[in-house]
């Protein structure tokens, strides 16, 4: 499927990882990872760190699927507010998910320190704006429940928000534990590191057309007629993983993104926080290391790539107008724009682990607006499963009966 269109900034900013290595022989390994984006890369990192032989397969040029279109914001908050998530999955699981996401930001930071790579990872605050009175009521409820569970949060009244960020909104939640990065660079830097340092193989432009279960795991068949025998298959292909799932577990959405020409640094808002809002679909924005502004939102249900792409020009104008209304003093000239497709689940949580009765096919599906932090959690969980260690987080993120 066509995952995105337009001109994603990350592929322009970075030198393309122009890696061409189709599989042209039959091979055997312990683990096969399908998907070379940020999720697959993090899974590969965890497996390589555990000295587990693994092979990665992708039908495209490396990391040019959904990861290339990500706005790469790292927050402990997920798309579903904690107070609402508690109603969906219960207090213990909801709080666990929020705390897992908080921990995963530091875990990501530590990975890049370890491999001595800089995917423009920067610690920044998050500001969640109340879009209206209803949003303000929600944020006050959110503030109380987050404080109860010692999650980092401050409440900014209307006057404080105006003073600190020069924004007009009824109020906001604020914390200083978030981060941002370059998702494409983040994925490719991990893969380049392990190609040199680990027992890791990477095959591009290789499509898996069929698979069968064996007594020892799986046998995969490629479009070129080659086979891969393995004990475990890890599906890290985002919403394209649907072809491996016996049941639909997500809905597809299209999101739209614009990025400005660089502006003078002193024109940007204080602390350069990630900004989003309570309204649905919500507007979200961040800055880049070269002082550009990324603005996204205007999400719609996905029907097909042509319908999604035909809306791009209109969505660009809407996003520009929304930003200028929020920050009229900041000059915003769109330099690039793109649209992409992503998945969402009914409870806002990812699906991680094995489908019932398929214990050797593991899924790392970081669906939703917090996909990168979910991907970090998935990578850790899959390492534990492959190493046959206890993994209590399956109770939160697994394919449990109450979720499917």
TrEMBL record:
Q: Which molecular function terms from Gene Ontology are attached?
A: oxidoreductase activity
EC identifiers of the protein: 1.-.-.-
PANTHER family the record matches: PUTATIBE OXIDOREDUCTASE, SARCOSINE DEHYDROGENASE-RELATED
Segments spanning the bilayer are none
InterPro entries in alphabetical order: FAD-dep_OxRdtase, FAD/NAD-bd_sf
Kindly report, in one word, the top-level EC class recorded for this enzyme.
Answer: oxidoreductase
Can the keyword Phosphoprotein be found in this entry's annotation?
no
Q: What is this protein called?
A: FAD-dependent oxidoreductase
Give the Pfam families listed for this entry. DAO (PF01266)
Q: Which UniProt keywords apply?
A: Oxidoreductase
This protein's species is Paenimyroides ceti
Annotated FAD dependent oxidoreductase domain ranges read 31-382
